[in-house]
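hi! just following up on the protien thing from before. the input was this:
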Amino acid sequence: MVSSVLGDESSSSSPNFNYHYDVFFNFGGEDTRSNFISHLHMALRLKEINIFLDDKLNRGDQISVEVDPSQVRKQIGGFGEALAKHEANKLLTNKIQPWKEALTFAAGLSGWDLANCKDEAELIQEIVKRVLSVVNPIQLLHVAKHSVGVNSRLRKIELVSHIGSEGVNMVGMCGIGGIGKTTLAKVLYNKIANQFEGCCFLQDVRREASKHGLVELQKTLLNDILKEDLKVVSRDRRIIIRSRLFKESSYSCSR
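and the predicted 3d structure came back as:
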């Protein structure tokens, strides 16, 4: 479902053009196109994700393929027959085994099963979230190279932070100014941020709170973790946001 595609389209009478796509849609069936795919397409477009659909291809001979993943994985049925024909060709002897391995690997890739999904809208949001995490990965924080004494202190923090365990964990770093607390926090953030669905680094909390208020800090924290432009305006809205946070694996760091 997700891939980065760079296509070239050229002819003798026109110049070359490069197109960059964030997502490539590979699907079959008109029912899928008119329902689920169209809804997913719209949800991704709203997030400014550039999508490649096969209806953008120049039309040629129509090809209709019904694929059973088990046939691909076991190389039976139509796939098995095709491979058997290729095996008879001595020129392709060295290519057959890599092809089989590639087919087995492709058929074994895990994904979402629309047939087993009770809520189509929820599945679409889950896919959009996954695509965003790939297309817009977590931005690492700038840290000076060869910072003195960071690695040894980082190992101590990792031992007490219980990263990967269930529940809410909190680690405090105390000390006088200038000893490298912020640098250490940034290094830790960069190292473990990709283990969480959402993360946020709040710097200069005291100054920002006095300048803009705690509500703005809350909005920054929630927006970074949930990757949405949220407004904390009412008690009911806060309850909804809290419920969503319970479902997410998130990490935040403040200084």
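The first helix runs from residue 30 to 46.
The chain has two domains: 5-56+66-134, 138-254.
cheers
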